[in-house]
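Feature request, filed as a ticket because there's no other form

It would be nice if the structure record came with a short human-readable summary line next to the tokens. Right now we just get the raw output. Example of a typical job, pasted below so the devs can see what we mean:
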Amino acid sequence: MMRFIRPDFYDEFECTADKCSYSCCMEWNISIDNDTAEKYKAFTGELGEKVNKCLISGDYSEYQIKLDENKRCPFLRENGLCEIVLKKGPEYLSKTCTRFPRSFAFYGDVAEISLSSACPAVTEFMFRKEQLSFSEDYINDVIDFNINDPLNKHILFGEEIRRFFIDILRLKEFPLWVKQYFVACLSKKIEEYYENKDYDSCLAEMEIYNNLDYLREYSKSVMAIKPNYILKFNFLCGLYKYFGGVYMETLTKYNDVIANSMIEIDNFTIEELTRIYERFNAEVYKDIEYAFENICMNDLFLKFFSKVKEKWTVYEKCMSVFLLHSLIKFVMSVYWYANNYSISQNERIDIISIFSRKVLHNDGAIVNFCKEQEDEGLFNPSYLFVIIR
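Raw output as currently delivered:
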């Protein structure tokens, strides 16, 4: 028996295809699996000639579709539909095209499916849900699984860590940034223990945080610290520029408004920036913080232990998710200010999806940015606290 874990909205999700605010067939490389590539090579006529020009060797897969000069898949029609699907049928889609925004992971006796907030249709669910949860069922797959295998034990304990982090994020009595700080501090304390497979020490640290009275006292001391907006805004402006802003040509509305405003705020005093940000918190963010919380849980579920071979530490995984959300919140406040203190629900969803797409599918980019700034102590949770505050 295998445990099948997924977000509770997974079964409701449907691709909106040509009704999507932007296409997943643009702006990034499209991997093609070998089986699909062989099907494409068998095409004849005009479609076959087009495939012959566009199918190239990939960097991280056997094949890729070469994007056109506008960074679009050459098979993407102006109506947002796929030429291959229209002419040959959906069974000719590659695994990448069929699955996105889904991600699959199999380890031990666990099968996971998660959904990326890089997709606007997924982000929309985050605003519909009062609080995200995850469903668990059992499926009758028989596998050869050895619980005593060191790798299996390590991965399954990692799943328990992730579950505990999400439980902290679900606590309603604390602001999201406080819960993020709890998780960041705990993840920093246990990362070395986890890497060294010292699970008893991990559990001992987790048990300290499994106490509401402790967290309540901890939160009082954390919330009493005054925010450092100079450090916060300098970092987030730098992170925005590092990712090149909004680069998608189909979203020039956001690119123009945000990019021009980022130039403008470079000349603002810290007092002016602080007033904008705090007004945004009071008038907009307080009513949508639950959606950011849902996205945060979904991103941790998606990125944290979804791969057998982990490239980043426990703390780095948490940090990258929390800094992404701080960046999104900051950019959203800039857009809201520039748009005459107004932002629609669709605009909120678009901005979240745009930056999730830029960051979540550039694995480790935030960690690499922080390593370039390492002399400023970005791998210290106290510094992270300043950014997410």
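Something like this underneath would help us a lot:
The chain is about 55% helix and 10% strand.
Residues 25-99 form one domain.
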